[in-house]
Write a structure and sequence with these properties.
Strand content: under 5%
Order of helices and strands: HHHHHHHH
Shape: globular
Largest sheet: none
Helix content: over 70%
CATH topology: TerB-like
CATH architecture: Orthogonal Bundle
Number of domains: 1
Structural class: mainly alpha
Number of strands: 0
Length: about 160
């Protein structure tokens, strides 16, 4: 499975030495793992969540449907073999700007609300992931409010 991920991206997930650069694709994979983890947080990965996730990945990374599906499949495999989320959040924390982390948090909240419900597991995981990404609770609350208000306007 790791060979499939490496061949898709041409590099390993984490650099072997401090001098080795982390590829943009590695960070994308890490972000997708977090998104998939959020989608599974309530143990019900709905079709609405799948569609939202696929659309967000295509839009954010400029991928076509097949590329997005392949990236999400690799992220699902990486998630299944991971012990925890730290390796993924660390990669994002080190390589994303505050603005990029905020966009990721917004996509995560959109994913949480795409099925119309917020479970306590989803809320708890969002807080934990955002803490690991060094996003202040105030940022998290602002992004959540934006997403919630956007949902209210579209209902």
């Amino acid at each position: 499975m790791l060979d499939a991920i490496r061949s898709f991206f041409g590099t390993s997930m984490a650099p072997e030495s401090p001098e080795e650069e982390v590829g943009e694709q590695d960070v994308r994979l890490a972000a997708c793992v977090l998104l998939i983890e959020i989608a599974h947080a309530d143990e019900d990965f709905t079709e609405d969540e799948r569609q939202h996730l696929s659309s967000a990945v295509r839009r954010q990374y400029g991928l076509d449907e097949d590329e997005a599906d392949q990236l999400l499949e690799l992220a699902e495999q990486a998630r299944a073999s991971a012990v925890d989320l730290w390796q993924f959040t660390r990669l994002i924390k080190q390589n994303y700007s505050l603005g990029q982390k905020m966009v990721l948090a917004e996509v995560m909240w959109g994913l949480v609300y795409s099925d119309g419900e917020l479970s306590s597991h989803e809320e708890s995981l969002m807080r934990r992931v955002c803490h690991l990404l060094d996003l202040a609770p105030g940022y998290l609350a602002d992004v959540r409010k934006r997403v919630e208000s956007g949902r209210d306007e579209s209902d």
